[in-house]
Amino acid sequence: MARTDPPYLRIAAEIRRRITSGELREGDKVPSTRLIIAEWGVAMATATKVLATLKRDGLVVAKPGAGTVVASRTRKAAPKTEAELSRERVVKAAIRIADAEGIRALSMRRVASGLGVATMALYRHVTAKEELILEMADMALGEIRFPPEPPSGWRAQLELMARAQWALFRRHPWLAQALSITRPQPLPNLLTHADWATRALDGHGLPPSTIMYAHITIFNHVRGIALNFEAEADTESGTAVTADAWLAEHEPILWDLVSGGRFPNFAGVVSRAPFDYDLDTLFEFGLQRLLDGYSVLLAKSG
């Protein structure tokens, strides 16, 4: 049976063709994630992997204010000798692989292959895959630069943080899995997020323990929903079935279960307001409800 490439590779191949044929020239905008979703009918996770693959191959770059554009053909090539390696380059190469192929595809051998060096060369910079993943997580978290002057009010400050984290998890679908709530990793850039959240909540009369619980709760809300990014990407790359196609196949089964009368409350609610399995909607709904609850908590402490 012929092998079928996952959707993100087929779409990336088509955009690559447009670039190499001259249809898209240096500096031209390439299809955004939204345009990819609209043109090919795939999910956000797939569209994100398309652009990550093209970036990994050096075909496109992110240009501030313009989006993702066709890269210059004269860009410096990735390091090809062990002497050119550094810890930063190893970590960046690993991030590119995890963005495009998922955290399960990551290995020291895979990173070395992408850099064109022997696997043993990596061990001068990172001692093991586990250390590499921590370095990747810290570098990714460092992409967020909080403003030196925070917006007015604790709620605006927490919203800024949560939405920045949500966008970060979207760019790096593997990141949510790399972080732990029960076993927090000693990552400097993760502590930057904690410092921002605790500053927003401190000084309002809340006990220190409550401030910590509130900070962890909101971070885990963002991370918890973001865990679906990697799972969705893994499923699509393995089965070539989009989220919409999966729902089209399984929704009738759900309705057969619901229509039998065993779950009247659930059936009644869903029939009056069909539910949209949209992760952005779930994130925003949960964020606002959490912050509403924090408002009550702060009012009681004042």
From TrEMBL:
> What region holds the HTH tetR-type domain?
84-144
What's a single GO MF annotation on this record? Answer: transcription cis-regulatory region binding
Picking any one GO biological process from the record gives:
negative regulation of DNA-templated transcription
- List, alphabetically, the InterPro entries matched: Homeodomain-like_sf (IPR009057), HTH-type_TetR-like_transc_reg (IPR050109), HTH_TetR (IPR001647), Repressor_TetR_C (IPR004111), Tet_transcr_reg_TetR (IPR003012), Tet_transcr_reg_TetR-rel_C_sf (IPR036271), Tscrpt_reg_HTH_GntR (IPR000524), WH-like_DNA-bd_sf (IPR036388)
Keyword Electron transport belongs to the record: no
Q: What is this protein called?
A: GntR family transcriptional regulator
Question: Could you tell me the keywords of this UniProt record?
Answer: DNA-binding, Repressor, Transcription, Transcription regulation
Q: Which organism is it from?
A: Amycolatopsis japonica
